[in-house]
Amino acid sequence: MARILIIDDDESMRHVLSRTVRRLEHEPVTAATLAEGRDMTRSGDFDIIFLDVHLPDGNGLTILTELTQAGSRPEVIIITGHGDPDGAELAITNGAWDYIEKTHSVQQISLTLKRAVAHHEERKRKSSGRVKALRRKGIIGESGALTRALDLVAQASESDSGVLITGETGTGKELFARAVHHNSPRADGPFIAVDCAALPEHLVESILFGHAKGAFTGAEKDQTGLILQADGGTLFLDEVCEMPVNVQKAFLRVLQERTVRPLGGKKERPSNFRLISATNQNPEKMVRDRSFREDLLYRIQSVRIHLPPLRERTGDIRPLAGYLLENICERSGVPGKTGSHDFFEVLEDYPWPGNVREMINTLEHAVGAAGSS
Question: How many degrees, rounded to 5, is the angle at CA 279 between CA 275 and CA 285?
Fold first, then answer.
């Protein structure tokens, strides 16, 4: 039995869909607004979601990416009015599985739902195998939250689409970016990591795009930018939301054209790179605040991977702490150490606001305090 969420403000449409779902021996759950539907997907897993385009509190397509990547990664079927162009084209290009018009017959709706359920079951079966086969160096744990993120890593690795990784500081965004790279066809190419928050604003364009000799005071020789260095591989922009607004437009053009003109240069140079970005901020809020371009956000998040904080995957703390202790002892040249039951209980009870990064620092201090005994 599949769980089906129906998000539609039309009571009669909710009734028709609920009756169709029950007749096919599945469980229907209904919501009448975007906010209600979003809350339901955050609190429970669904296999299929019927999503209306026009809702009282907004356009359903604005939460499409969030819905497709929630919980058990449901298939989303867009509900549109007759001949509504928002449905057919945007539904598919933005990640929906299919769309139906409200004028469709019950038989048509039933057929679409049967196909979606079958597709979802097959995708779950295949994704389980992909996650187990992933090269995931340094990513420790088997919790449901972590497994869902790894499922997205597996899917992202099979395409060349832009990936946006979100999550609190210290959750391991670069580790996941490297996992996408190392499991992709670009694994043998370079992985160029850039911390946008650490780039001096007056040098951002020069560092990313490169420059020709004499382009500005101090440019004594040609310099190849990081975008060109990533040719054939992956460019990882950490804290991408810190990129200055004046640079965002130029970078968007690079993504569209896949060519770069170094500062002071006369020719465009091609660069075949895959972009992975990361941020610990809320990019949608930054778009609303006009500190990040909306068109650039669409470009960089064809696949969005949200990393859960450590406090939401406490079952991973023991194996993670054991792995980190082993690495710290090996790196420090001291005999291997293990933790007592009480020690691990303390780790599990702590909320870890700094996530894995804080745990590493804590364990390094503990190993140092214990000495070589």
Answer: 115
Q: How far is CA 56 from CA 32, 87, 307, in A?
A: 8, 17, 31
- Read off the pLDDT band of 274 (50, 70, 90): very high
Average pLDDT estimate for 291-317: 90
**Per-residue model confidence as pLDDT tens digits over 166-178:** 999 999 999 999 9
For residues 274 and 182, is the Cβ–Cβ distance under 8 A? no
Q: Determine contact, residues 275/163, Cβ cutoff 8 Å.
A: yes
**Residue bearing tokens 């140092």:** 368
Phi, psi of 235 (to 5 degrees): -105, 120
Q: Which helix (H) or strand (E) holds 106?
A: helix 106-133
Write the DSSP string, 140-184. ----HHHHHHHHHHHHHHTS---EEEE--TTS-HHHHHHHHHHTS
- Judge contact between 236 and 193, C-beta under 8 A: yes
pTM of the prediction?
0.69
Nearest to 332 by CA among 300, 307, 358, 369: 369
pLDDT band at residue 239 using 50, 70 and 90 as cut-offs: very high
Residue 60 CA to its chain's centroid (Å): 20
Give buried/exposed letters for 162-183 (b at 16+ CB in 10 A, else e): bbbbbbbebbbbbbbbbbbbbb
Block residue for tokens 């995931």: 136
Q: Please report which confidence band the pLDDT of residue 334 belongs to, taking 50, 70 and 90 as the band edges.
A: confident
